[in-house]
Amino acid sequence: MKTKVLVVDDEQSIVTLLQYNLKQAGFEVITAMDGMEGKRLAEVEYPDIIILDLMLPKLDGMDVCKQLRQEKVMTPILMLTAKDDEFDKILGLELGADDYMVKPFSPREVIARVKAILRRSQIQNDDSEGNKSEAQQILIGSLTLYPEKFEAFYKEELLELTLKEFELLIYLAQNKGRVLTRDQLLSAVWNYDFAGDTRIVDVHISHLREKIEEDTKKPVYIKTVRGLGYKLEGPKVE
């Protein structure tokens, strides 16, 4: 079966451009022209990835993203914004988008971003029926991570993580005890140029802390090293 992409944008020219180029690249494409219809299709069509415009009629992209994540729909979301505005970028990521692009963009760049995101989600789907006990695992305190299965557990409860949150957590865990700068994390987890956008790292660190720390103001696992970056440690055994 072809990989299914849901494109949600109210500009017909952009929908047509993306639909044509994605189909040429071998994807199945479904489209919506407003946020309400986009959210409905996301829930009933089970796309592999969503390309979601920020400014939409009926329900804007921020609300679509927020509501899908609240309903535990973890389909990767590539958000489009017409404004090169740091607030829009960060807010989109805070609400659960996996990535963003600023208009105007080239279809080739969109397809490259889509493929980069899907490479990881497809690994998760391909391995979904494997045996956890036989899979590679990383144990750190109450965290159990399965890198090959894209699954993470805290106190035996499955964590609902976006792809980028998961990749960031795995990279921190694989470098346990090592201080990693924001630029190092950008280079390792976001495999294209985000120079100057280190706030993206801070947003994802904040998300992870909310999911694995009992007290986000006194983190046990993900520590901030002032002036340098972050490191992941296990809880101290007394």
Whole-number tally of structural domains? 2
CATH T-level fold name of the largest domain? Rossmann fold
If classified by CATH, what would the architecture of the largest domain be? Answer: 3-Layer(aba) Sandwich
- In percent terms, what proportion of residues is strand? 15-25%
Taking all Cα atoms into account, the compactness measure Rg is 18 Å
Order of helices and strands: EHEHEHEHEHEEEEHEHHEE
Structural class per helix/strand content?
Answer: alpha/beta
Low-pLDDT windows of residues:
127-134
- Characterize the main sheet: 5 strands, parallel
Our count of helices gives 8
State the name of the first-level CATH class of the largest domain: Alpha Beta
Q: Which strand order spans the largest sheet, edge to edge or round the barrel?
A: 2-1-3-4-5
What do we call the CATH homologous superfamily of the largest domain?
A: Response regulator
Oligomeric description of these chains? single chain
| Approximate helicity band | 40-55%
Question: Any idea what the shape is?
Answer: elongated
The rounded distance between the terminal residues' Cα atoms is 53 Å
- Give the averaged pLDDT, no decimals: 84
Query: Number of DSSP strands?
Result: 12
